[in-house]
Amino acid sequence: MNAPIEGQPPEGKHSGEHHPATRRLGDLQKAITMAQIAKAAGVSQGAISSLLNDRDYGIRVSEKTRERVFKVCREMGYIPNDLRAVVRMYPELGDFCILISQRFSAGMADPWVSGVVETAMEATAAASFSLSVGRYEEGTDYTTETTALPPALQTGVASKYILLGGANPSLLQALARRGFPAVALGQDFATSNVLSLVPDYQQASQIALAALFDAGHRDIAIVSGPFGETEPETIELHRGIRLGSEDAGISLDPKNIIYSDKSFEAGVSALETLMQSPTPPTAVFCITNTLAAGVLAGAQARGLKVPGALSIVGFGTRPGGAFPAPALTTVEFPVVPMTRRAVAAMEELLREGASGAARKEVFSVIWVPGGTCGRVHHT
Fold this sequence. Notes:
The structure is a single chain. Strands 4-3-5-6-7-13 form a 6-stranded parallel sheet, with helices on both faces. Strands 9-8-10-11-12-14 form a 6-stranded mixed sheet, with helices on both faces. It is built from 13 helices and 14 strands. The N terminus is likely disordered. The N and C termini lie far apart (88 Å). The protein folds into 3 domains: 88 residues, lambda repressor-like DNA-binding domains (434 Repressor (Amino-terminal Domain), Orthogonal Bundle); 137 residues, Rossmann fold, CATH 3.40.50; 133 residues, 3-Layer(aba) Sandwich (Rossmann fold), CATH 3.40.50. It is 38% helix and 17% strand. By secondary structure, it is of the alpha/beta class.
């Protein structure tokens, strides 16, 4: 165990000021041993092996001990041969990874996902690390199914993570155990060492209802998600709907509130239900653009003039070419500023280390005029 550790910096991974230990490498006159690191950190050599190899070996190492050991290694200028150990010790050198939840079944075809990936690629183009995309399951227990962890975590080459989807506590534990922070886009994880960047969902509903009210609409329908859904963003959207209707001084007809899944087909079905009313609405606000596209398709199938006979407003990432014409009027996710902030925030999160507290930043949404919202058409 006292044999020298012949650590060398990995080629192509760092240079100059990008690596805090580089300036000290030339000052080292002899190899560093595990015994020297253990003595300086005040821990056993077994604990050093456990941390460097990311194995527990039956030795429980606390987060404070881990931070102390890595701090000593950095101060001594030690760089291990194993790239995974390098990334754990110097997380600023690790690659970038975007992890996408299974809820985004369309993958890169989803406009929210593709918008985040494209913006992240642009934001990291000049950096010395690479960008990869992986998937995770929100319901998988990664503490027992470690082989199911995303490849970026298994190989240990990435240390900067953006998460799209709901929280998985075991995945967050795996990140924290390795000392890697994460940025959650679109949802508030409220978890230590995670920065949540979320659009102002409440503001989105209020903006949509205010625009429809200003256009003369009083009979406004809402197409929402499943009844009783507890997703925080849906709760915030509903709160905004309530406040927006109160601000406008209108009372929403309960018969004009449709609960469904968030699919295109559900939007088509919602339109059919709404049109069966003796006094159908003149406008519809959908809590996703996919639902809004379905409502628009249903209206077109019925021969309804949009806008005119019916105005439609959605919410989310701007739809792609697969959505029906005319261009959807929507309250847009601030994808670009949120993603740029996620990339820029990594440096400060890595400085905070595993002890970083949970944080949330809220971004204003954007009203995007399209061809589906106009003044109320009186018959």
